[in-house]
Specification:
With about 100 residues, the protein is of the alpha+beta class. About 25% of the residues lie in helices and about 45% in strands. The chain has two helices and five strands.
């Protein structure tokens, strides 16, 4: 297993924040996977789980965002022991 970080840009479903509705967001996921394809697929599922656990799916009538990979990187063996795994913060993009 190798540690990967996958960064997505999400669109198609607005994210409501105190600043207003954002039309897009970015989120990173760091996880162990057997290869790049597996890392992307598992990271996508993790983002969808996080989306629904926050209740955003219910706000959007069950709709899930469209996720486009904007970066997929292997974490170096030197950095891996110090890299936290999981879904990072979903960062709304108010200009996107």
């Amino acid at each position: 297993m190798q540690l990967y970080t996958v960064r997505f840009r999400g669109t198609g479903v607005p994210v409501v924040t105190p600043e207003g509705a954002a039309r897009a967001f970015e989120v990173s996921v760091t996880l162990d996977a057997t290869g790049e394809e597996a890392a992307e697929a598992r990271a996508r599922l993790d983002v969808y789980r996080e989306w629904t656990s926050r209740g955003w799916g219910a706000e959007a009538s069950g709709a899930l965002p469209d996720l486009a990979v904007i970066a997929l990187d292997r974490v170096s063996s030197l950095r891996a022991p110090f890299t936290a795994k999981g879904v990072g913060d979903i960062a709304p993009l108010h200009d996107g």
